[in-house]
Design brief:
Layout lengths: L2 H13 L2 H8 L3 H15 L4 E4 L2 E4 L1 H24 L6 E5 L1 H14 L4 E5 L5 H7 L4 E4 L8 E16 L12 E3 L6 H12 L7 E3 L3 H9 L5 E4 L7 E4 L5 E10 L8 H4 L3
Parallel strand pairs: 3-4, 3-5, 7-8
Antiparallel strand pairs: 1-2, 5-11, 6-9, 6-10, 6-11
Helix pairs in contact: 1-2, 1-3, 1-4, 2-3
Pfam families: HTH_1, LysR_substrate
InterPro entries: LysR_HTH_N, LysR_subst-bd, WH-like_DNA-bd_sf, WH_DNA-bd_sf
Family: Belongs to the LysR transcriptional regulatory family.
């Protein structure tokens, strides 16, 4: 029985879906199904029941989940104990991901992590050079040097100051990032094209916090991650909902232990 098979099984159990687990882990669906089948053959029991909505755990699956949680906790403790306490884990990501996701993780969990804030387009080069241990990026990267170790989806909403009166979106100023690979910029440009918004109404600001501040003084509006928090911000209902992927990549030849708290949601 392989430890990675237990990780795959735990992800399937948590998401109640082989397809969702494959997407999160960066595998193709048949590979996930095959690893579950290997576990079932080794144990001589069925672990999951498939249905139209996904999967649910059978009794044997519930027992395996209980023990796999204990096994993986012990394995994680082992890895932490044999890793130098002073070893620093270097993370590189964008401003918005750092503020809406990474910051909370680093504040909640004791860790030895350095955080590098870069434009999305610069992250791949940092990982390739070995300057950082992991990148958290909006991009989907096809590079044989890299391995995807997790990810999640983020809903993108259109934010405004809660007391701002908006009569027509076509009259509003939109704040966008200058990085052409930024998905929020791409969503904004597509929205502008569909709603006849002039290019002159799109103002480039490279600071996530500055964009929030400009929204709060009613200078304009912006597409931002749904995790964005500020006392007087509210969202503008739209017909269509935009979702973007956030991906975690390490180098294939990396021997550093990826902190679980970093890639686990919640």
């Amino acid at each position: 029985m392989e430890f990675n098979d237990l990780r795959i099984f735990r992800t399937v159990a948590r998401l109640e879906s082989i397809t969702k687990a494959a997407n999160e882990l960066g595998y193709v669906q048949p590979n996930v199904s095959e690893r579950i089948k290997v576990l079932e053959n080794e144990l001589g029991v069925s672990l999951l029941k498939r249905n139209n909505k996904g999967v649910r755990l059978l009794r044997a699956g519930e027992v395996l989940l209980l023990y796999s949680d204990k096994i993986m906790d012990i394995l994680d403790d082992l890895k932490r104990n044999i890793t130098s306490e002073n070893e620093v884990y270097k993370i590189a990501t964008t401003q918005s991901i750092a503020k809406t996701y990474i910051e909370e993780k680093l504040m909640k969990f004791k860790s030895y992590c350095s955080l590098y804030i870069e434009q999305n387009r610069s992250l791949e080069a940092l990982l390739k050079s070995g300057d950082v241990d992991i990148i958290v990026t909006h991009s989907t990267i096809s590079n044989p040097l890299f391995k995807r170790v997790g990810g999640y989806e983020e809903t993108v909403l259109l934010f405004t100051e809660k007391n701002k009166k908006i009569t027509a979106l076509s009259d509003e100023t939109f704040f966008i990032n200058r990085d052409k690979s930024c998905p929020f910029r791409q969503i904004s440009l597509a929205f502008a094209s569909e709603h006849n918004i002039k290019i002159s109404q799109l103002l480039e600001i490279d600071s996530y916090e500055m964009i929030k501040s400009m929204i709060l003084v009613q200078r304009g509006i912006a597409f931002l991650p749904s995790r964005t928090h500020a006392k007087n911000l509210s969202t503008i209902p739209l017909k269509d909902t935009n979702r973007i992927k956030i991906n975690f990549y390490i180098r294939h030849d990396s021997h550093k232990f990826v902190p679980d708290f970093l890639i686990q949601q919640g």
